[in-house]
Specification:
Layout: E1 2-8, H1 16-34, E2 40-45, E3 64-70, H2 73-83, H3 86-96, E4 106-110
Antiparallel strand pairs: 1-3, 1-4, 2-3
Helix pairs in contact: 1-3
Length: about 110
């Protein structure tokens, strides 16, 4: 299984609650429609209730960790192909402009060992 994690930052003028609500009710359905080749798609929102200002351990520069799994290399390749399509990417970026900072998003491929 191929796993990718995305570290995503909300726009400064969007509250944490509004960010989460928009992501779940607008962005998730869009991604599921445009990129249906994943096997698992989960969001992990940071809890900042006990964070201290300036502490990188408790106050990182992102607001959600998005986790996407692909069952096969072919599914992952299809994802890469779809996200390089200018029309698909334009639709995703247009939606992202409503609630997150696209240029701040970081992507990490994860190799799990158990």
């Amino acid at each position: 299984m191929i796993k990718h994690f995305f570290l995503i930052s909300k726009k400064p003028d969007v509250s944490a609650a509004a960010f989460r609500a928009y992501y779940e009710t607008h962005h998730v359905p869009l991604i599921k429609r445009l990129l249906p080749m994943f096997a698992h798609y989960q969001r992990h929102y940071l809890d900042r209730s006990n964070s201290r200002a300036g502490d990188a351990q408790t106050h990182p520069d992102f607001d959600v960790i998005t986790e996407i799994h692909f069952a096969t290399q072919a599914d992952f390749d299809a994802f890469l192909k779809a996200t390089s399509d200018p029309a698909v990417l334009a639709e995703i970026r247009a939606d992202e402009a409503n609630f997150l900072i696209s240029d701040a998003t970081r992507s990490l491929r994860i190799d799990s060992c158990i």
